[in-house]
Amino acid sequence: MADNNSQYTAPLKDMAFLMNEMAQTPAHQEDLLFILDQAANFAQKELAPINQEGDTIGCTLKDGQVSLPPSMKAALVSYAQAGWMGVSMPEEFGGQALPETLASCVGEILTSANHAFSMTPALTMSACRAIMAYGSNELKSTYLPKMVAGLWTGTMCMTESHCGSDLGLVRTSAVEDGPGQYKIKGNKIFISAGSQDATDNIIHLVLARLKDSPKGIKGLSLFLVPAKLQDANGNWNQDNNVSCIGIEEKMGIHANPTCSMSFEGSTGFIVGEVNQGINAMFAMMNEMRLGTAGQGIGLCEHSFQKSLGYALERTQMRSLSGVKAKDKEADPLVVHPDVRRMLLTQKVFAQGGRALGQFCAQLLEQSHQGDISKEDQQLLDMLTPIAKGFCTEVGLESASHAIQIHGGHGFIKETGAEQLYRDGRIATLYEGTTGIQALDLLGRKVLGTQGKSLMSFTKLMHKLCKENLGNEAQQDLLSVLAKYSKEWPELTMKIGGKAMKNPDEAGAASFDFLMYSGYVTLAYFWAKMAITAQALLDGDIQPQDGNLDREFLEAKVLNARFYFERILPRALGHKSSMLAGMSSLMDISENQLQA
After folding, report:
1. How many domains does the chain have?
2. Fewer CB within 10 Å of terminal CB in the chain, N or C?
3. Average pLDDT of the chain to the nearest whole number
4. What domain range is 574 assigned to?
């Protein structure tokens, strides 16, 4: 049996379908697809083969210096030298200024091939976005060119040992030490790539509090704190009292160091305004949340590929409907309905999530260019926690299916299936847990806009159904979608009414609301993909990409049917749970919980 442990093939055909056939403004330039092909080659040849090695070797800390696995260090250097770091960054800082839709695909490819590797470039580019949005011209000119070039990397330093997502409890302090310059003192934990030996400098974005600042998040400021400062001769080798004092022994992502960082009077430079740090940090956080959604999508894709490769070759039992492989003593796993259930579940989550990711990337591109309407910005804001929360949750489900399809072999390290799950587990936690995303979605993004953001999306659903009233081939899908476009706002109003009487009602409903929203959101994209694929098959529209084959398009239509018949009904269970109210959760006392 072929070893597919390190094999990964970027889903370029599906990505091209989304970029060309599904986009509002088709990116049919051959140059973009050529670049995507080159990214795939890099991931397939340099990242996937070292994925398990990095997991086995891990990172080490000695005398305050973190060492990456040698192959990971070499890959980061190679990635930077090839110019991949700044794919979507502005040209003025050395970037290539390519579309976010392309960058989204590149990000997914990286995380599918090597999750631990993908985190460092993603964090660095998100840090760049925060500096671009809020940093002074001096900070931009000093730091961005080297970060965009990949010569320096960036981190996000928020969490402290006594507080996770509750940033209002941050204790790290800042004392003014000249115009725009401060001394930073405190410790941060869970800092991904907080120290490593692949680059000469690491630029930390640190949340800290000035003396006499307001309590809570309103008193936080954001500071740029380099690990190394420029000396009198212009060389960046002056120590800035930034130290890694420990690295975590983790469940997964072993090749990316998760660091405890100490800032002992480190020089920092204000990013944005005093006491406005949370705004600047969320410029970075929202970028990372979409990036993390891409990690969930990439996990679905890699899990599907690993599972399919195994299911096509591994023989177990005979088919219930009769022998399928007469030349073998058993039939391949792929003939069994329950294995098909798991394979198709992985596939529709990967391709449906990818369609959502591309849609968000289009909106993000408009936002970066300052060419986005208030309605579309609200729509992007609403879809971000759905993409992050839902795609990472179903990514874990897909990885779990990969272990199940491999059977006992999935539970041992040799096949690599268990690493997918271990690495992917973090994606539901960082940048805000699924529960945090759910509260953000329901509280801030939907109820906080009086439902306007939600209506922006349900209008798209209604429009798709209305424009395709005569589409007999997909009418069964569209009739179901139309019902959800009406039900979703109705459910929101019911929960909102309860929450006005007791805010805990929103907390009790929030997770189920997020998952319901995720299933319905993907239903819209699957219906749209099925309509587009059928129109291409029937010759009603001409393809932008001449390489699309009939089998791919037919599979799109069949996959959409599977999604609507087998996956979308899960939303009904979440509907029942969210309407059940808070009593069964909150009536039990702490003592009764322990009984």
Report:
1. 1
2. C
3. 94
4. 450-585
